[in-house]
Specification:
This protein is of the alpha/beta class and 291 residues long. It contains 11 helices and 7 strands. The protein binds nicotinamide-adenine-dinucleotide.
Length: 291
């Protein structure tokens, strides 16, 4: 019997890569329900699986901000069960906090946090009843450490960490394993997409000169460093496979071993060393006076 996998956010990036990889798995061990918010974007996925795979891949519409669409997917699963639930859909948000609107902030939390919660809530009772299941969540370094001008994105991903870690303790008693795949920068549309919601140049005029300068320095500098650390989707997908293959999966997997300053964060728990080191690293040209 094939393991039934449901993945959210499969129109691009990591979700698409994972769906294709599992649908093509030589063992034929997976039946993948690749879901996406907007079915008009299914061409990319279809191009990757040209030549069949009807028996290992089904594409369904699912917007994780819409409970009805999640329930509709649940009803459309022929096997009436999900063995591996992959909560992958997520959006970024970049910009000085003072410029973010309530609407924009709520939207990102609605996808990254509540969308993940809704999806888990929908499929959990059936997993609990069977005393079996895997939940895999696409996590982020931004859920483990703060990054400037990613305040609300990091807040949403930190929240996901709390959600998963808390659930893991209970789910342990149901033979359900929850794992976070902690990604550093990945070569997807994610960065470009986040620029769509970030404040426009004209709006930047509304903030003070110092914040604006720091923001612009961050954007420039980060494009450079994130570029150096950027992983290909295939490498990240490999880590998902590792979690899937593990007999007893861990709570956290790291796709990228270079976790800037994480050790500082762990060994100096008042946070001061992390903030100092991250400031120096991310704003190398700034004079830091009062740290
Ligand atoms: P991506 O933008 O290519 O993929 C995100 C997917 O989520 C898209 O297909 C998008 O349509 C989908 N999505 C957004 N809102 C949705 C909704 N309401 N319902 C259903 N789907 C929705 O980028 P990606 O890098 O593949 O992102 C996947 C995950 O990886 C995200 O959770 C992201 O936070 C995380 N991540 C990405 C990076 C990176 O650098 N790319 C780093 C760390 C973590």
């Amino acid at each position: 019997e094939k393991a039934v996998v449901l993945i959210t956010g499969c129109s691009s990036g990591i979700g698409l890569g994972l769906a294709v990889r599992l649908a093509y798995d030589s063992s034929g061990a997976f039946k993948v329900y690749a879901t996406m918010r907007d079915l008009s974007k299914k061409e990319r996925l279809l191009e990757c699986v040209r030549g069949g795979h009807e028996d290992t891949l089904k594409i369904l519409q699912m917007d994780i901000t819409d409970q009805k669409s999640i329930l509709a997917v649940k009803q459309n699963i022929e096997e009436k069960r999900v063995d591996i639930l992959v909560c992958n859909a997520g959006v970024g948000l970049l910009g000085p906090l003072e410029l973010l609107t309530q609407d924009t902030m709520q939207q990102i939390l609605d996808v990254n946090l509540f969308g993940t919660i809704r999806t888990i809530q929908t499929f959990l009772p059936e997993m609990k009843a069977r005393r079996s299941g895997r939940i895999i969540v696409t996590g982020s370094l931004g859920g483990l450490q703060g990054f400037p001008f990613n305040d609300v994105y990091c807040a949403s991903k930190f929240a996901v960490e709390g959600l998963c870690e808390s659930l893991a303790i209970q789910l342990h008693h149901f033979n359900i394993h929850i794992s976070l795949i902690e990604c550093g920068p990945v070569n997807t549309n994610f960065m470009a997409n986040q620029h769509k919601t970030s404040p426009k140049e004209s709006e930047l005029q509304k903030i003070d000169a110092k914040t604006k300068a720091l923001y612009q320095a961050y954007i420039q500098h980060c494009q450079r460093i994130f570029q150096d650390d950027m992983q290909d989707t295939e490498n990240v997908v490999q880590v998902f496979l590792e979690a899937i293959a593990a007999e007893t999966p861990a709570l956290r997997y790291y796709t990228n071993t270079s976790m800037p300053f994480n050790r500082l964060k762990l060994s100096f728990q008042d946070g001061s060393q992390y903030i100092k080191a991250a400031s120096k690293f991310l704003f190398p040209d700034e004079q830091l006076t009062d740290l």
